[in-house]
Design brief:
Blueprint: H1 2-8, H2 15-33, H3 39-46, H4 55-80, H5 89-100, H6 104-137, H7 142-153, H8 156-159, H9 164-178, E1 181-182, E2 189-190, H10 203-221, H11 239-244, H12 246-261, H13 267-281, H14 294-317, H15 323-334, H16 341-346, H17 348-378, H18 384-403, H19 406-424, H20 430-452, H21 464-494
Helix pairs in contact: 1-17, 2-4, 2-17, 3-4, 3-15, 4-5, 4-6, 4-14, 4-15, 4-17, 5-6, 5-14, 6-12, 6-14, 6-17, 7-13, 7-20, 7-21, 9-20, 10-18, 10-19, 12-13, 12-14, 13-14, 18-19
């Protein structure tokens, strides 16, 4: 294995491989930073241009794009409170408060280092554990997906802010939104009043509305200030701050890698779970949401380690672990390659060249991220009266480009107004997004499980992985309740 990996670095010395990695990283940054665009869309758009490349540079370009796009979403999440894609949503919780305090470079620096750390560690894990973990992931059925979804919903404790009730209302609203459209199991229509609702409410316009447009409305309300921020520090995190966040990076990397291996789970699930678990493990959970670096490091590490995790079933079994990995299968097919166990036997130089490219791509991403930190922070010096309409125009354009539908524009504007009202009345927005991300998986997996068991709920207590996930979810809820009660009764006892 070591010999193959060392040999994999040899083709990276060629100019076409270097250009592929650098070019993929640049495109990935742009794709990730633009609201409404995702790594999946970026890969799909660039796929035809790789047809004339040889196999390894083609795959290096697309995988570098994939990794850089996962980091790129944090740029606007930190600077403008607008997640580039769903997985970057938890980054806004502490990244944007740091920007409001005048430290965008600290948040961006922690974001890129956590992404780099996760990318390197998860790639090493991919090299060492790909084959056995892929086999384990295939054992996941509907009961396991249901339990994983419920465990993900426990993250609402970290997202609800000061009011559990308002957080729960947000979750219920998000779950209700997911019921619109054609039922995946029975094929019947639910709450369809116009033809555009047959496929349900798309996530991207809702995400743009709740975060981007509501933020624009809040900014317009406060336009008495002429400049976005009066004091902006360009200092990156110190070595002590990086070391303080090391455990957060480790936890986020582990969670993201394991979630990435499970086909269909998704990076948004990983980043929400990582943020929740980091808050739960912290000695000062009350600081999360106020601008704490651990709150940036954990979700950023998680969504970047998902990249390597999603490649595990793709390379070893030919089964995509994510939507972006599914598009990557097209890249393999175009080059006349068949992902699966035989790929390691027939073309080990290609596989290990790809592994080496993933490692090199993370180094390039780190260098570009650190050099660009000051540039991203400069956006904050633009007067709000100029920046606000630009942000609104870009987000609406991205929303329209995602679906080529005016319905998506109206949907984004409607949810933008709703997000503004929710913020004014203290309702957290993140639980709505969390429920929308997990709702479909929870409902579909639950109903499929009951079909498999002829209506018996005992199926959820007969499978070891399901039992473990449900137990961890219950323990997480119990711990949050205990901590909440202890926090309320603590001051009373002192008095």
């Amino acid at each position: 294995m070591v010999e193959h990996l060392i040999g994999g670095f040899v083709p990276l010395m060629q100019w076409n491989s270097i250009l592929a990695i650098v070019g993929g990283s640049v495109v990935g940054y742009l794709v990730g930073a633009l609201p409404g665009l995702s790594a999946t869309m970026g890969i799909a758009l660039c796929l035809p241009f790789t047809f004339y490349l040889t196999p390894l540079p083609s795959l290096l370009f697309l995988t570098s794009l994939y990794g850089a796009a996962e980091y790129g979403g944090s740029i606007t999440a930190v600077t403008l409170n607008i997640p580039g894609e769903t997985a970057a949503t938890p980054t806004t919780f502490d990244g944007y408060p740091l920007t409001q305090q005048g430290f965008p470079a600290k948040a961006l620096g922690m974001s890129i280092v956590a992404s780099f750390y996760a990318g390197i560690v998860s790639t090493i894990a991919l090299i060492l554990t790909a084959v056995p973990l892929a086999g384990m992931a295939l054992s996941f059925g509907p009961p396991e997906y249901f339990a994983l979804g419920l465990f993900g919903l426990t993250a609402v404790a970290a997202l609800a802010g000061k009011s559990w009730v308002k957080g729960a209302i947000g979750v219920l609203f998000g779950l209700l939104i997911n019921t619109i459209g054609i039922d995946d199991i029975s094929g019947t229509s639910r709450y369809i009043f116009v033809n555009a609702l047959y496929e349900g409410l798309p996530l991207v316009p809702i995400l743009i509305g709740l975060f981007a447009i509501s933020e624009v409305l809040m900014t317009m309300e406060a336009l008495t200030q002429n400049v976005a921020f009066n004091r902006i520090s360009g200092s990156l995190p110190t070595l002590k701050e990086y070391l303080r966040c090391h455990r957060a990076m480790v936890r986020g990397t582990l969670i993201g890698y394991l979630v990435g291996i499970i086909p269909g789970a998704g990076k948004a699930v990983a980043s929400f779970i990582a943020y929740n678990e980091e808050k739960r493990a912290s000695r000062h959970p009350e600081l999360f949401g106020t601008g704490i670096l651990e709150g940036v490091a954990a979700p950023e590490a998680a969504n970047n380690s998902v990249v390597s995790g999603a490649l595990v079933p793709l390379l070893t079994l030919g089964i995509p672990g994510s939507a972006a990995a599914a598009v990557l299968i097209g890249a393999f097919t175009i080059q006349g390659l068949q992902p699966g166990p035989l790929l390691f036997v027939k073309q080990p130089e290609l596989v290990y060249g790809l592994f080496a490219g993933l490692l090199a791509g993370n180094v390039v991403m780190l260098a570009m991220g650190l050099m660009g930190t000051q540039l991203w922070a400069m956006v904050l010096r633009v007067p709000k009266s100029i920046l606000t309409p630009i942000v609104l125009a870009v987000t609406l354009f991205a929303c329209y480009a995602e679906s080529n539908s005016l319905f998506s524009l109206w949907l984004a504007l409607g949810f933008g107004i709703l997000g503004y009202v929710m913020r004014k009345f203290g309702f957290p927005i993140a639980p709505v997004v969390l429920a929308m991300v997990l709702g479909k998986m929870i409902e579909t997996s639950f109903r499929k499980s009951l079909i498999l068991s002829d209506g018996s709920a005992m199926i959820f207590l007969e499978r070891p992985v399901t039992i473990i996930l449900l137990a961890v979810a219950l323990l997480s809820i119990a711990f949050q309740v205990y901590r909440s009660r202890k926090k309320r009764t603590g001051p009373t006892r002192v008095v």
